[in-house]
Amino acid sequence: MPVRLVELTADDAHRTDGGGWLSPALDVYVSAMNYPRGTQLHRAPLWQDHMTRPGWVAIGAVHQASAERPETLVGIAYGYRGAPDQWWNQQLCAGLRLGGYRREQIDEITRNYFELTELHVHPSMQGTGTGQRLLQRLLRDRSENSVLLSTPEVPDDDNRAWRLYRRLGFTDLLRQFTFTGDPRPFAVLGRRLPVQ
Ligand SMILES: CC(C)(COP(=O)(O)OP(=O)(O)OC[C@H]1O[C@@H](n2cnc3c(N)ncnc32)[C@H](O)[C@@H]1OP(=O)(O)O)[C@@H](O)C(=O)NCCC(=O)NCCS
Q1: Exposure string for 12-45, b = 16+ CB within 10 A, e = fewer
Q2: Where are the domains of the chain?
Q3: Are the beta carbons of 176 and 140 closer than 8 angstroms?
Q4: Which CATH number fits domain 4-192: 3.40.630.30, 3.30.470.20, 3.40.50.11420, 3.30.43.10?
Q5: Summary mean pLDDT of the chain
Q6: Is 119 close to ligand 1, i.e. is its CB under 6 Å away?
Q7: Which residue has its alpha carbon closest to ligand 1 atom 23?
Q8: This prediction's pTM
């Protein structure tokens, strides 16, 4: 059966009738990123906080393996409008300054953007276009000038995430950037909106 995209609301995040999406979405995230089990507990309050941010929107990908089985969440994408009081925005501005961008360039980059915060597809469903569909749907009808994201550096920019971002026209803003408290190198990528 085909994968179906659905808009996820903050009100439904914790529904107790089986329709709550936050817990399965965190499971998808942990499986996709291959993080240790239990990471969900640390991330839940952060994802919850993100839901209160201006312009927050989330899209889920649901799949039904067979007519007898219930639909399950197999992908999640969300983001919100960037703002100066956000940690990621502050890290980005500091990184851009260190990266040699001029004040006017930094203002232009950070003035009106959508932050792609999370994009994950369960490993069992990766590589069939679901991530691309999630991202295109998430970015549909946005009012911001651009979309920005950070993604871990990988050799030769060659994994599914990088291929997807390049295919959709994302270009480099920062490379080998480290966020405070995390030694792993990241790239910050961006592109103007809309995405066709
Ligand atoms: C990154 C991620 C979200 C991409 O989602 P995905 O569904 O696996 O990937 P895509 O939507 O890009 O699928 C494209 C692949 O499906 C194939 N495909 C099949 N039908 C397709 C279609 N109709 N449209 C687009 N691609 C299609 C493409 O050939 C492509 O293969 P390739 O990646 O091997 O070149 C997912 O791989 C993932 O969760 N990865 C781990 C977590 C992660 O890295 N998240 C991002 C952190 S910033």
Answers
A1: bbeeeeeeebbebbbbbbbbbeeeeeeebeebbe
A2: 4-192
A3: no
A4: 3.40.630.30
A5: 96
A6: yes
A7: 129
A8: 0.96
